[in-house]
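Is this the right way to post structure tokens for a design question? Let me know if I should format differently. Anyway, here goes:
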């Protein structure tokens, strides 16, 4: 795409040279023209006579707006008049606008009055971009006009976007149907509207000093789109660039961190209750087979291992140094790790930025970058990597091996993860504390786990992202192959940010995270338990081959609740075709109900459950099954569980492997039945209709993002 970048550069440099942050409307018009962003015909008038001449040339009616670098909010200043339909009104309007501007802000520099073709009709939308502190440049789309900040019906994407991603934004707002021509109205020209979004995203990417960009309103109709007003705000000061670490370097160090041949424990102790003692015990008792070097200048031996006064005194190579010393001693010990060429340091101590001591944290970051050391932490519980029997932590050991990698910024959340993993027998490949994230963060871990054969899903608790763009890049790569589940703490408003545009104000809450995590293909969990249940259940379910979901239930009430859950999760209840409806009816009593949900009624024997489940599995038009069980004497819980597991296993033996989830209602025996089903890759929960459908919904969200549904 050919753009006139030279013109934009000239305009922006001039504005910054004059010490301004806001472009005037004519300057904004020239920027839009340079990138092919449609705006109305216009001109700048210095006198009432010039305004009349421009209006007659453009054609009535016209809009008139004050042009002043000192007046950003033109409407508030009485600096906007619309619908001026003849020369007399234009001449009078010019004088009125100038007088209002001088009254609003005495001494304001006034360049003149903009005379603009009046546009309207169609649907008012907003297209904009802002600079998010986490993700950098993001582009926004939503309903526009004066109510934009009230309705807040807007969606965000990481800039730049391609045409397909821009089109997806039109469907990403609640009022998407309005754009498609609701109530007999003409649909908008979606391709042209998406093209404007794309051009805006490329403009702000090419010129990172553009902090905020608004086109509001944009009038979208079946004939195209045109922006009635443009607002461009520049960033004050230089544009900072984030540190970039090549993927090969990340993998090199992360591989040594997770698979060390030798670990040094800085601050090792033989005294019970000390962190350095707990780390030593966990490494030894956990079965780690590599070398363990305790570092303590006051000891000759700790827990049967020869102690060294410093890491520099260790005779062989060391892959990881685990720090269990007070914060004030960390900088010196980190320098020694640099002398020893140790590539990774795990910083358990607290007393850094989390306590307000940013200076000390900045100091260790500088040392680590200068000495080529990657740091995990500080202020963490350590980390586990079960394939190596590695338990480099002062918390309880964990040795149930599996394919789930879990991370958390919080030590308390880390322990909740540990307890859940143990109580559910959910095998893990890794549990990693991230703490202050002074260096190593989620994108480093995702980069490693994406290629780790021992990991098939990653679940992350995070309070923030240090580099949102790096995270999205890493997550997009991983989600092509393996699910990434995120629990983002702080779903409520993230605090009002000073914003000079509608887009900037709208971007001040959790919606940016929500939309961009979705753009990255990430499964977002609403709470801690959901994150853990997704991590446990999603890897067990096969990827669905299509959207058709069928509910088979023994209780009408649970069928209704399961249907509600299906809708809430964005799943699609299959419209049962007549031949399939007839096939199900062969097994259902006359007072039951086919359709979807399929209600076999509670008094039916095991054979009815068996026949309907088998039919649901064997018909290729059905892509996923949700089972609703009701505890009866006719079909007790374990009978249901055993027959369901057998029928599913028989289908798998024939090459049919569909997602099957189950909700069991009944007395306490249903708990054992659910455990039996879960052990056989059928995600089942007692006393809830929402939870099994939520896990199925999470699987579907990943499958869609990975492009597995065609």
């Amino acid at each position: 795409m050919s753009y006139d970048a030279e013109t934009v550069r000239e305009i922006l440099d001039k504005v910054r040279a004059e010490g301004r942050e806001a472009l005037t409307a004519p300057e904004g018009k020239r920027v839009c023209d340079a990138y092919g962003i449609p705006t109305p015909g216009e001109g700048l008038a210095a006198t009432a006579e010039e305004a009349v001449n421009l209006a007659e040339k453009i054609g009535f009616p016209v809009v008139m707006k004050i042009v002043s670098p000192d007046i950003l909010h033109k409407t508030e200043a009485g600096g906007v008049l619309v619908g001026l339909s003849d020369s007399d009104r234009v001449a009078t309007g010019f004088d009125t606008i100038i007088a209002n501007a001088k009254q609003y802000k005495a001494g304001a520099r006034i360049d003149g009055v903009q005379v603009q073709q009046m546009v309207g009709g169609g649907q008012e939308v907003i297209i904009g971009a802002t600079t998010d502190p986490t993700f950098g440049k993001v582009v926004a789309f939503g309903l526009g006009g004066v109510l934009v900040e009230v309705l807040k019906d807007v969606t965000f994407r990481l800039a730049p976007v391609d045409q397909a991603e821009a089109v997806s934004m039109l469907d990403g707002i609640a009022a998407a149907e309005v754009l498609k021509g609701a109530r007999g109205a003409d649909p908008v020209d979606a391709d042209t509207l998406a093209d404007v979004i794309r051009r805006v995203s490329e403009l702000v990417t090419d010129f990172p000093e553009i902090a905020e960009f608004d086109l509001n309103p944009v009038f979208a109709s079946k004939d195209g789109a045109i922006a009635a007003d443009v607002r461009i705000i520049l960033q004050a000061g230089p544009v900072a660039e984030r540190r970039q670490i090549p993927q090969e370097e990340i993998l090199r160090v992360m591989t040594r961190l997770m698979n060390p041949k030798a670990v040094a424990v800085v601050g090792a102790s033989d005294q019970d209750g000390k962190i350095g003692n707990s780390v030593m015990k966990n490494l030894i008792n956990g079965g780690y087979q590599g070398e363990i070097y305790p570092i303590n200048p006051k000891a000759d031996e700790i827990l049967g291992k020869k102690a060294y006064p410093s890491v520099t005194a260790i005779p062989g190579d060391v892959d990881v140094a685990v720090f269990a010393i007070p914060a004030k001693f960390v900088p010196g010990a980190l320098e020694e790790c640099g002398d020893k060429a140790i590539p990774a340091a795990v910083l358990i101590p607290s007393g850094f930025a989390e306590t307000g001591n940013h200076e000390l944290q900045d100091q260790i970051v500088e040392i680590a970058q200068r000495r080529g050391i990657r740091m995990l932490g500080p202020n963490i519980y350590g980390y586990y990597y079960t394939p190596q029997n590695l338990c480099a932590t002062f918390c309880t050991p964990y040795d149930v091996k599996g394919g789930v990698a879990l991370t958390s910024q919080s030590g308390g959340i880390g322990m909740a993860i540990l307890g859940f993993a143990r109580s559910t027998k959910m095998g893990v490949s890794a549990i990693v504390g991230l703490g202050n994230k002074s260096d190593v963060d989620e994108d480093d871990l995702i980069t490693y786990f994406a290629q780790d054969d021992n990991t098939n899903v990653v679940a992350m608790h995070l309070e923030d992202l240090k580099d949102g763009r790096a995270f999205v890049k890493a997550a997009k790569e991983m989600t092509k192959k393996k699910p990434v589940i995120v629990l983002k703490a702080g779903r409520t408003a993230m605090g009002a940010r000073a914003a000079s545009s509608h887009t900037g104000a709208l971007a001040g809450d959790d919606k940016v995270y929500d939309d961009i995590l979705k753009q990255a293909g990430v499964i977002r969990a609403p709470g801690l338990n959901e994150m853990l249940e997704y991590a446990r259940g999603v890897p067990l379910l096969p990827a669905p081959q299509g959207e058709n979901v069928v509910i088979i239930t023994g209780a009408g009430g649970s069928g209704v609740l399961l249907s509600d859950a299906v809708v809430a999760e964005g799943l699609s209840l299959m419209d049962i075709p007549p031949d399939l409806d007839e096939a199900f009816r062969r097994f259902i009593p006359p007072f039951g109900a086919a359709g979807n949900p399929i209600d076999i009624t509670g008094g039916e024997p095991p054979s009815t459950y068996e026949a309907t489940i088998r039919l649901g599995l064997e018909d290729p038009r059905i892509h996923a099954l949700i089972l609703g069980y009701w505890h009866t004497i006719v079909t007790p819980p374990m009978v249901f569980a055993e027959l369901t597991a057998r029928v599913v296993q028989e289908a798998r033996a024939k090459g049919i492997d569909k997602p099957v989830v189950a909700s069991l209602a009944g007395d306490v025996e249903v708990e054992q039945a659910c455990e039996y089903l879960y052990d056989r890759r059928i995600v089942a929960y007692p006393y809830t209709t929402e939870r099994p459908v939520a896990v199925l919904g999470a699987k579907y969200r990943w499958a869609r993002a990975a492009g597995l549904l065609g």
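Format looks fine. Someone answered above. Worth noting: The chain has a mean pLDDT of 93. The chain has 24 helices and 30 strands.
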